[in-house]
Amino acid sequence: MIARLRGVRAPRYMRYVLASGGALALDFVLLSGLIALGVGAVPASAIGYAAGILAHWALSSRTVFADAVARHGPARRRQQAMFVLSALVGLLITTAIVGSGAAFGLDPRVAKIVAIAISFQATWLIRRHIVFV
User: DSSP string spanning 83-118?
Assistant: First the structure.
């Protein structure tokens, strides 16, 4: 019997964790590199997140939700648009947390760690229950 995590099959959730980890690695490398180049915390966070989203779609649509991805046509475009909208929710959460943290003198990378935990769960729930149904 497959273990369950709050009603979600563990293997799918674990694949999502791994896909997110890959996208996050790209995101965090870009965030750190851009900050080192003098880019502000909020734009650096947004750029890193956007690049991570492109990587996340590639990984998620092929490994996590492959059985639920629309193959072509209007259904595929609708699903991609909803994926982008879920990413924008995560981006809003991320930039708000990083911006607030920076405004209070917190290192943006530390604020990003907090943002990761919150935006990860929000986007997982949206994608699992709305985008890939």
Answer: HHHHHHHHHHHHHHHHHHHHHTT--HHHHHHHHHHH
Instruction: Look up residue 88 and give its two tokens.
Output: 């924008």
Distance CA 108, CA 35 (A): 9
Name the domain count of the chain: 1
- Please answer whether residues 96 and 121 qualify as being in contact, where contact means their C-beta atoms are separated by less than 8 angstroms: no
Domain that holds residue 59: 4-131
DSSP 24: H
Q: CB–CB of 24/31 below 8 Å?
A: no
Mean pLDDT of 5-17: 72
**Which of 90, 112, 88 lies closest to 102 in space, CA to CA?**
112
Helix, strand and coil content of the chain, in percent to the nearest 5, comes to 80, 5, 15
Question: What is the tens place of the pLDDT at every residue in 34-47?
Answer: 999 999 988 998 89
Q: Indicate the DSSP class of residue 67.
A: G
